[in-house]
Design brief:
Helix content is about 75%, strand content about 0%. With about 190 residues, it is mainly alpha-helical. The relative contact order is 0.12. Helix 1 (about 5-20) packs across helix 6. The longest helix has 24 residues, at about 145-165. It contains nine helices and no strands.
Length: about 190
């Protein structure tokens, strides 16, 4: 890996660390440069504006989640497949909790930032499609019901992520999993899984 690529990666990691631990407002060019151990000019060389810097960091989180979703094994068991997809986006471990914090920070700022909003729409569309595909593996599942169930599953995951990262110890990983299973039992008729 070239030093330019390594520097870029170090800057992105610094952004993600700052956003995940302190929030998006703290991800200034100066703070990012300090955290990455580079000059402000180096950060500006790779990211000409703060908006580009933040969008790049958000895109990196999206790529990480997307890679895990693409590696999900789609089986003939819709319940298991949907559960697997949701487990990749729920804050079940330290890494996914950090990603959830970052995604929530960016989602809030996407309200007023068209570039982040576009990335957010893309992320939601991809996740929705993955969940539709998972629900469609259920025998006799109506495609329209799959689309609605996918929306419900996203809302479930977002709500659980919000409550998990905004409170300490409100929900454990086992409670997150149990909640997902309870809702999936309602979304997928029992005889189909």
């Amino acid at each position: 890996m070239s030093s330019g690529v390594q520097t870029y990666a170090a800057i992105v990691e610094a952004i993600l660390k700052i956003v995940g631990e302190q929030g998006l407002p703290h991800a200034t060019v100066r703070e990012v440069a300090t955290a990455a151990g580079v000059s402000i000019g180096t950060v500006q060389h790779h990211f000409p504006t703060k908006e580009v810097m933040l969008a790049s960091a958000f895109t990196e989180v999206v790529h990480r989640v997307r890679a895990r979703l693409e590696a999900t094994d789609f089986t003939n068991d819709a319940h298991r497949t949907v559960s697997s997809v949701l487990s990749e986006i729920l804050p079940l471990d330290r890494q996914r909790k950090q990603e959830a914090r970052i995604q929530l920070e960016f989602a809030v700022h996407a309200i007023h930032n068209p570039d982040l909003a576009e990335t957010q729409r893309t992320v939601l569309a991809e996740l929705h499609q993955a969940l539709c595909n998972a629900f469609d593996t259920s025998a006799d599942q109506d495609p329209e019901r799959s689309r609605l169930a996918a929306h419900a599953a996203i809302a479930l995951a977002d709500g659980l992520a919000l409550h998990t990262v905004s409170t300490e110890r409100w929900l454990s990983a086992s409670q997150l999993n149990a909640t997902v299973e309870l809702v999936l039992d309602a979304l997928l008729p029992r005889e189909l899984h």
